[in-house]
From TrEMBL:
Belongs to the auxin efflux carrier (TC 2.A.69.2) family. It is a multi-pass membrane protein. Involved in cellular auxin homeostasis by regulating auxin metabolism. Regulates intracellular auxin accumulation at the endoplasmic reticulum and thus auxin availability for nuclear auxin signaling. The keyword Transit peptide does not apply. InterPro entries: Mem_transp_PIN-like, PILS1/3/4/5/7. The lineage of its organism: Eukaryota, Viridiplantae, Streptophyta, Embryophyta, Tracheophyta. This is Protein PIN-LIKES 3-like. GO terms for biological process: auxin-activated signaling pathway; endoplasmic reticulum to cytosol auxin transport. The chain crosses the membrane at residues 6-26, 46-66, 72-94, 106-127, 147-165, 257-277, 297-315, 327-347, 397-418. One of its GO terms (cellular component) is endoplasmic reticulum membrane. It is found in: Endoplasmic reticulum membrane. Keywords: Auxin signaling pathway, Endoplasmic reticulum, Membrane, Transmembrane, Transmembrane helix, Transport. Its main location: endoplasmic reticulum.
């Protein structure tokens, strides 16, 4: 199939997403105010607590079985690789641009976590339904696309709250600690003790480590006592890694880890894998099929609701500021140039060694996971940590605007490579 035909196939789902996003932006305008701050917050709660969990449970239960997990296991690794590469590149970007500390957690989140949920649920089935689709029969393709998108969405939800959230929390706490330190006034003339003035957020989030003069020394140095001498020496690589791991685990919030979407993913896997439960809930003769049908019906509201919220949230970015152009360009370069290029090499290497099967749609999905814009949950986490909220809207505006063109181009390239 020629490149132009593939480009048109890739363009259609992006245009659909863009139109619905535009509707959300329009409804969020002050003159319309159908998706104002209060309405947006209420709809976002419905999506977070009801629609998204229903969609994940319904799609996973219907499409994922024990046999399919045996063939799709590499997606679990692939999604993790996208998060690891993104966070590593974000760290390099922070060092190069010398990003302000209150924005570092936001940069990490935007580079590490891609929108693995609703965008794939829109793009993959839409590509399958196009007449010139390179993925064969549309009905078979749509069924497989639903399974791939559902698994991607579930894994994305799990990794965001188990990996990205703790990292963002570490950087947010560090920024808060520096702010609190700058607000310290030394001197109590009677006792000679230091008096520190902490803001409310500093008091809430700052968790100082006992016996550590600074966080950097805690992470990179240990006190060594030997018979010959004693002093501080650089820790070896393995010990350094363990220190980072322990610090990361210490910032894992179990309440956030078991978010509704994570719990829904667990239930979806159980229903899909355990055959007796599956037969009771799914199928024309299933006695409890009404429960599954109700959950599926609720889940269908997820995609339009999330896309409308994205559009309304982007409106805030038009009014925001405070993010340097170097940071925005760096995030765009990481998400839309470096990561997709690396993704091609990783997926092709996995295919070469027989880790990934010959299914063209599956390979296309794995590559596409490297080219997606930042996850909207990054904005939610920024609100929870009370850092970089307004700047997040600006970054989302620019990254999603550029995604309109980059996703179309990369989707075309990916289809050309696998077809």
């Amino acid at each position: 199939m020629d490149f132009l035909s593939l480009f048109i196939v890739a363009l259609m789902p992006i245009l659909e997403t863009l139109i619905v996003t535009g509707v959300g932006l329009f409804l969020g305008m002050e003159r319309i105010n159908l998706l104002g701050a209060i309405s947006r917050q209420s709809l976002n709660k419905l999506v977070f607590f009801v629609f998204t969990p229903s969609l994940i449970v319904a799609d996973l239960a219907d499409t994922i079985t024990l046999d399919s997990l045996g063939t799709l296991w590499f997606m679990l690794v692939n999604v993790l690789i996208t998060f690891l590469i993104g966070s590593a590149l974000a760290w390099i970007l922070i060092k190069i641009t010398r990003a302000p500390q209150h924005l570092q957690s936001l940069v990490i989140g935007c580079c590490a976590a891609g929108n693995l949920g609703n965008l794939l649920l829109i793009i993959l089935p839409a590509v399958c339904e196009e007449d010139d689709s390179p993925f064969g029969d549309s009905s078979v393709c749509s069924t497989d696309a639903e399974a791939y998108a559902a698994l991607s969405m579930a894994l994305g939800a799990i990794y965001i709250w188990s990996y990205v959230y703790p990292i963002m929390r570490i950087y947010a706490n560090k920024a808060t600690k520096d702010i609190a330190t700058d607000g310290c006034t030394t001197r109590d003339n009677i006792s000679g003790e230091t008096l520190c003035l902490h803001s409310e957020i500093g008091t809430a989030l700052l968790l100082p480590s006992e016996g550590c003069p600074s966080s950097e020394e805690c992470m990179y140095q240990v006190e060594v006592h030997s018979t010959g001498s004693e002093g501080k020496v650089k820790v070896m690589f393995l010990e350094n890694t363990m220190l980072h791991l322990k610090k990361l685990i210490g910032h894992v919030d179990l309440q956030k880890l078991f978010a509704p979407s994570t719990i829904a993913a667990i239930f979806g896997f159980i229903i899909g894998i355990v055959s007796p439960i599956r037969k009771v809930l799914i199928g024309d003769d299933a006695p409890l099929r009404a429960i599954y049908s109700s959950g599926s019906l609720l889940g269908e509201a997820t995609i339009p609701s999330m896309t409308l919220i994205i559009g309304a949230n982007l409106l805030r970015g038009l009014k925001g500021a405070g993010v340097g152009p170097a940071l925005i360009v760096g995030i765009i370069a990481i998400r839309y140039i470096i990561m997709p290029s690396l993704g091609i090499g990783i997926v092709k290497a996995a295919n070469h060694f027989g880790i990934v099967g010959s299914d063209a749609l599956y390979q296309f999905t794995l590559m596409l996971q490297y080219a997606l814009p930042p996850a909207m949950n990054v904005g939610t986490i920024s609100q929870l940590l009370e850092t970089g909220e307004s700047e997040c809207s600006v970054i989302m505006l620019w990254t999603y605007a550029v995604a309109t063109f980059s996703l179309t181009l990369w989707s075309t390239i990916f289809m050309w490579l696998v077809s």
